[in-house]
Amino acid sequence: MKxxxxxxxxxxxxxxxxxxxxxxxxxxxxxxxxxxxDGVKKGTIVDKGVINNEVSNRIYKHLEEKGIKTHxxxxxxxxxTLVKRLDIIPIExxxxxxAAGSLCKRLGIEEGKIFxxxxxxxxxxxxxxxxxxxxxxxxxxxxxxxxxxxxxxxxYGYRINSLMITFFKERNIRLVDFKLEFGRYKGEILLGDxxxxxxxRLWHSETGEKMDxxxxxxxxxxxxxxxxxxxxxxxxxxx
Length: 239
Ligand code: UDP
Prior knowledge:
Bound molecules: uridine-5'-diphosphate
Strand content: 25-35%
CATH architecture of the largest domain: 2-Layer Sandwich
Number of strands: 15
Radius of gyration: 17 Å
Number of domains: 2
Oligomer: single chain
Largest sheet: 5 strands, antiparallel
Helix content: 25-40%
Strand order of the largest sheet: 1-2-3-7-6
Structural class: alpha+beta
Distance between the termini: 25 Å
CATH topology of the largest domain: D-amino Acid Aminotransferase, Chain A, domain 1
Shape: globular
């Protein structure tokens, strides 16, 4: 089936969404553009779009096999994937297994501290406000989600985290933290967006080397090389 790409519906920092002839479906196009610190730092990571598309689809297929409902329909090309059109819930769900990033700054915790059980946080998805940390009360009062939806986000967040820890561990990667986005679709909550080195912290299990967007954020070098390494570790098997 040849899916026709129609008008651009939304352009974000790393992806573009296009309409299709089916109003329930969209095409998610992955760019090489990279940004950090709320768009203050901008750049390009060569072939990031191809890598993130492949990595994310590999992961979403795995999650679907494990009973997690996602927006994934089918990969159309190296940078394009057909997805279900979600009504995105404006809450970013972050799971943390190891201390890093904003949590270290906010709470004065040293990077590398292990969290068992993991920490789950909600952030309000709003660039102008720099995605502030929120709790259930904010989400309910401001009607970003219902209590039933928050319960699903939490349950899915923890389940996806434990599935992803195992998935990455089997590929020699330590899942430090990552961000998830969900949306409403025909009465259900589905996992949307992407899971890739852009929105995860991934450290090599043996060397501890960072293989994610922190390399771009902090100008650590070998950005493309490490994204490619994640791709090789995640996508080389056919399981
Ligand atoms: N993250 C993301 N998009 C955001 C904020 C965070 O993908 O807008 C990811 C980030 O890559 C990391 C995790 O969520 O894997 C936790 O991010 P953190 O809160 O530590 O923020 P950061 O240090 O990235 O500002």
